[in-house]
């Protein structure tokens, strides 16, 4: 299994809702990532988990809360979002987080989030 | 500053011809990795090719090759024999040590490639 899966594919939520995005990989990768991508822009890193521990938080607002229940799963909990948070949220994984060289990331198909 | 620059917002190429997508980078690190990803309109990012900063040979993967010129800090992607399915957004990316000690990947602005029949 060489893929990263994400659910749901599309999500529409109001500013008072609480929802979660899910990401799963079964490649034995030990690093997992959340990215946010606005239309016609490159992905922006939000969080990195390495061996199930949060290793990088790129100053993301607290209305986004990541969780890594085990080495295969990564969640992103959403609460009190703003319309400007509407974007494509991409999950990725790599073999590990231990180096600049190699460690290409495998991306999921993304969740298109719309906040009304 | 650590930065990736892609100066071509859009490129056109005739089917079956070769095309070069430009990428320059800026880092003071000695150890880093350079990647190219393809993003079709469906949204999924697809890994294409990787070049390590200490690799002396240019990377090749099928129709993709990376023209790595370390002194000029450039890592251009060459696609040979373009196909209609190559129409997509292409991102150059660099993996390096972040400010907080973890490794992270930064992306260039991207180049939209259009392949004409």
Folded structure, characterized:
- The complex is a heterodimer of chains A (116) and B (117).
- Chain A has 116 residues and is an all-beta fold.
- In chain A, 0% of the residues lie in helices and 55% in strands.
- Chain A contains no helices and eleven strands.
- In chain A, the strands form two sheets. In chain A, strands 2, 4, 5, 6, 9, 10 and 11 form a seven-stranded mixed β-sheet that branches. In chain A, strands 1-3-8-7 form a four-stranded antiparallel β-sheet, with no helix packed on it.
- In chain A, a hairpin with a 6-residue loop joins strand 4 (31-37) and strand 5 (44-50).
- Chain A is globular, with a radius of gyration of 13 Å.
- The relative contact order of chain A is 0.33.
- Chain B has 117 residues and is mostly beta strands.
- Chain B is built from no helices and twelve strands.
- Chain B has strands spanning 3-5, 10-14, 19-21, 24-26, 33-39, 46-52, 60-61, 64-69, 74-79, 88-97, 103-107, 111-116.
- In chain B, strands 2, 5, 6, 10, 11 and 12 form a six-stranded mixed β-sheet that branches. Chain B has a four-stranded antiparallel β-sheet with strand order 3-9-8-7, with no helix packed on it.
- Chain B is globular and about 45 Å long.
- The mean pLDDT of chain B is 93.
- Classes of the chains: A mainly beta (116), B mainly beta (117).
- Chain A binds chain B through residues 40-43, 45, 48, 50, 55-56, 58, 88, 90, 92, 97-110, 112, and chain B through 29, 31-33, 35, 37, 42-47, 50, 52-54, 91, 95-98, 100-110.
């Amino acid at each position: 299994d060489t893929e990263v899966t994400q659910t749901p594919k599309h999500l529409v939520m109001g500013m008072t809702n609480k929802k979660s995005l899910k990401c799963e990989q079964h490649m034995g990768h030990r690093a997992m990532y959340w990215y946010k991508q606005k239309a016609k822009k490159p992905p922006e890193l939000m969080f990195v988990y390495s061996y199930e521990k949060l290793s990088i938080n790129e100053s993301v607002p607290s209305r986004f809360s990541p969780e890594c229940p085990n080495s295969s799963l990564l969640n992103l909990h959403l609460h009190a979002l703003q319309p400007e948070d509407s974007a494509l949220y991409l999950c990725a994984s790599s073999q590990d987080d231990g180096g600049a060289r190699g460690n290409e990331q495998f991306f999921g198909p993304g969740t298109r989030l719309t906040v009304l | 500053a650590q930065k990736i620059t892609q100066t071509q917002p859009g490129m056109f190429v005739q089917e079956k011809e070769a095309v070069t997508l430009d990428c320059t980078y800026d880092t003071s690190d000695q150890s880093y990795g350079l990647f190219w990803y393809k993003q079709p309109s469906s949204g999924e990012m697809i890994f294409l090719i990787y070049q390590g900063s200490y690799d002396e040979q240019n990377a090749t993967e099928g129709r993709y090759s990376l023209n790595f010129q370390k002194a000029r800090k450039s890592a251009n992607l060459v696609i040979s024999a373009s196909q209609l399915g190559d129409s997509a957004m292409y991102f150059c990316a660099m993996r390096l040590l972040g400010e907080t000690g973890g490794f992270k990947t930064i992306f260039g602005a991207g180049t939209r490639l259009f392949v004409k029949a």
